[in-house]
Amino acid sequence: MLYSEKVMDHFRNPRNVGEIADADGVGEVGNAKCGDIMRMYIKVDKKTMVITDAKFMTFGCGSAIATSSIATEMIINKPISEALQLSNKAVVEALDGLPAHKVHCSVLAEEAVKAAVKDFYDKNGISYNEECLKSGECPCVH
Amino acid sequence: MIYLDNAGTTKISAKAKEAMMPFFDEIYGNASSLHMAGQIAKEHLESARTKIAKAINAEPSEVYFTSGGTESDNWAISTACKFGALKGKKHIVTSAIEHHAVLHVLDEMKKQGFKVTYLPVYENGIVRVEDVKKAITPETCLVTIMFANNEIGTIQPIEEIGKICAESGVIFHSDAVQAVGHVKVDVKTLKVNMLSMSGHKFHGPKGVGALYVKKGTPLFNFIHGGAQEQNRRAGTENLAGIVGMSVALEEAVEEIESTSKKLTELRDLLLTELSKIEHSKINGDKVKRLPNNFNMCFEGIEGESLLLLLSDAGVCASSGSACTSGSLDPSHVLLALGLPHEVAHGSLRLTLSRYTTKEEILTTIKEVKRVVELLRKMSPVWDSLQKGGKHVI
Question: Nearest 10 degrees: CA dihedral of B304, B309, B313, B316?
Answer without folding.
Answer: 0
